[in-house]
Amino acid sequence: MKYKNEESGLLLFEGTILSYAVLTNDARSGVFVETFEVFKQFLKRNTNMLVMCDVLMYFNMKKTLKEYFSNDRIDIMYYVRWEQSLGGNCPLEIKLRHIIKCIGFAILQPILSLINLLNGKRKRILRAKAFFSTGYVPPRYINRNESIRKYICLQDAIPILYQEYFPQMKDSYFWYRLLISQFNSQGRYFAISQATKNDFCRLFPQLSPEQVTVTYLGKNDRYQYIENPDIKVLEKYDIDQDTKYFFSLCTVEPRKNLLRSVKSFIRFIRQEKITDLYYVVGGGKWKKFYDQLLAEFSGDVFFQDYVKMIGYVDDEDLPHLYNRAMCFVFTSQYEGFGLPVLEAMGCGCPVITSTSSSLPEVVGDTGLTVAWDSEEAHIEAYRQIYTDEALRIKLHTDSLARAELFSWENCAETMLREIYG
Fold it and tell me: pTM value?
């Protein structure tokens, strides 16, 4: 189905997060992946879009368009995201950023308004059918326009459920605070899992289940079974080609449960006297928790000898690491979806994940699930994977089939059907 409609069918796509494509590490999170992949699908369907971008990301967006979308005709409008650009992490920082940015915005605002008025984009916006965003709220003048329907993607309720890890929630300008402050009975929302939908409807009574549509995330085509993974990728991360290893990919933060999964692994290999198995951990880190992790295992020879922290992993390298792993461990305490689990399944890598939040929705019955807070359950799952080759083969086959049920095509099509009716 094509969505190249007349002007009244214009979709305002909040694309600021697209500019993160030229950045690396933690900036390219699950929200970025969803924004990037959904945008590509909308383009494939010739959706009539005007991309809106924070002017502060102007240069990054220019690089992104040149590097990833040079063959596409993309209409873009830069604007000042006043409120969402003012947030800080402490009272002093908030005040300083507020003063400095307000001065800059006071200069930029009339200039951009004049540019968008002369090029006709401000007029087009007022006649748009809908506003779509993967997280950021619409500007006030769009919010006040009742003829423009607003569609916002709900990623997870983590900043609410685990506020101890999010001091930003005390800041009224924090993007997530702005998001939840605008929940109302007229808005339309896309939740990335049924668990996420349930959480938001439970936490915010003003949201009805009818307002929230579940749109599961998809799998990039790069995540597929590779018969002969590239040995050079293993060498890049100092992994011997004959090494047996469990693989984990996550930011090193408390919610990801990495401390428990590593501790359980060390207990397992120590109890079983295993000397040919390693635990490889990839991903960015929260410095405070990373230091806590290292302190926890200070002096532990098993951690030093059998746990390898390889840091950030390039996207193109991940399929090779998934394919070579004996299994993928992702026993998070809470996830809005759990995209790494789907990526591993797409490569046919057996998965050990937790029974919490959205993760059972993703893995179904094609992986091993454990209670996130049980070391014994972790150890038993490790034992099954390590000792049972027939189980690994079954999980490999089942995972490949299960992963095919999730696609960015289905995700985008569901969204566009909802927007355009």
Answer: 0.88
